[in-house]
Amino acid sequence: MIRPHERPPRIWPVVIATILGLAILVTLGVWQVNRLAWKEVLLAQLAANAAAPAVDLKTAFNMSRAGSNVEFVRVKFTGTYKNDASMKMLSGYDGGQGWTIITPAASSDGWAVIVDRGRLPGQMLEHFQQLDGPQEIEGVLRTHPYGQGLFDPANDPKANMWYWWDVQGMVAAIGLPADLKPYPFAVQLVPTGNGVDFPRPQEPKADLANNHLGYAITWFGLALTLLGVSGFYIFDLRRRRSAWSAGR
């Protein structure tokens, strides 16, 4: 607390601190605006990929090699499921515990493809439908680039317990036949109404949070708050310093 006879603090340190604070907050707001624009372009690209006509596995692979983002690119191929090598991943289902069924498939053009067939409730784990013989498989590519999350347990291939997507590890776990090439991406089936109750394919959704507009508003709001509070404080300091000077 400043006593009446004491000299009020100088104004310039407050001005400098305010300018620095505003610079930081506005920079963070602008950064979030740029991130918002980038995220919207990315989401639009993913939506365009999913809406485009299906291509074969080699075409999608070559698109990736050429630098294209192949997440959600729709693919269609003939393949035979390796049902004895199916894997299960702990997942949710309809608000309860469930499983994602992941089955490798040998494509007719020589690829070993990890296929996400969909989800089922926990009690259906031993009773879902297997598909034998060549199948027309249609889905979207999933690159699963994020790896193990902070709170995810380690995958246990020997016990066939998977908690997060590791496409390379899954390919290694199936014991790849010598005549097949490992496909670098998973294929997530899309709902087609093929009569199979379980596992049930999920509608493809981008696992991308887009909260950048809210963050930008927060940073700009804090900048305006700082400007208002500092402006009031500087005005009060000037008034008190004038009164102090007049009373000397």
Structure notes:
The protein has 248 residues and is α+β, with helices and mostly antiparallel strands. It has two domains: 1-53 and 209-248; 73-189, no CATH class. 37% of the residues lie in helices and 23% in strands. It has a five-stranded mixed β-barrel. It is elongated.
Topology, element by element:
Elements: H1 12-51, H2 57-65, E1 74-81, E2 87-93, E3 96-107, E4 111-121, E5 134-142, H3 167-173, E6 181-189, H4 212-246
What keywords describe this structure?
248 residues; alpha+beta; 2 domains; 4 helices; 37% helix; 23% strand; elongated
What is shown here, in short?
This protein has four helices and six strands; from the N terminus they run H-H-E-E-E-E-E-H-E-H. It has 248 residues and is α+β, with helices and mostly antiparallel strands.
Instruction: Give the terminus-to-terminus CA distance.
Output: 20 Å
The total count of helices amounts to 4
User: What percent of residues are in strands?
Assistant: 15-25%
Tell me the structural class: alpha+beta
Spatial order of the strands forming the largest sheet? 1-3-4-6-5
- SSE pattern: HHEEEEEHEH
Radius of gyration: 29 Å
State the shape: elongated
Mean pLDDT reading: 87
Largest sheet: 5 strands, mixed, barrel
- Regions with little confidence, pLDDT below 50 for 5+ residues: none
Total separate domains: 2
Percentage of helical residues? Answer: 25-40%
